[in-house]
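User
Take a look at the entry that follows and flag anything odd:
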Amino acid sequence: MAGFRSLARQVRDPRCDLALRRYSLRKCLERFAPYGHRATWDHLCSRAGFGPEDRSPDPARLVAALDELEEARAVWLAYEVEFAERRKKEKHDGLRRPGSVDDWHRLTWGGFGVAWCDDPAVHPREPLAEVLRRLIAALEREPGSACPVCGGEQLAWKYDLDHEPSAGPVCTDCGILVPRPVLTPEALADARRARMLVSA
């Protein structure tokens, strides 16, 4: 099975058939898809200017989509290296029990679903790398009451998400499943109440 970098080379290779180049970009999302496969694909297509069902997009647009994905992946891989180093130091210092950020991180190892968007058509508009930088910054500071990506304060608790965890606070503005460790207990309670009001 080809890795991310090998697939990326195929996307860039002008000698490859256009269908293979598009297919290789889609396959990259099996290795790294911050919003989940379908939402990340929709995001990349809209930002690069071709349709999700376009079977013969402009090769330059495919490469532009890949560039954005690679930049975001570099941001996430750097975070994972820092995370692993921190955990190693904590274990050395006797802190064996992981915290809530560590529990969340375990579910997103490799970058799949880091900023999960259950509705593939609703996702942040900013570049993927910027979204991940904002999310990482939120994970490294004290919890807040708003979405770390867009600053939206309307969070609603959603159930039956096609992701793990299968329930949690979703930003009604940008559509991401907000990681619980970045929110205060009060913000989480407000999101649960918002869900209860919607279903009442």
Summary: The mean pLDDT is 91. Helices lie at 4-12, 18-28, 37-48, 59-92, 100-107, 128-139, 185-199.
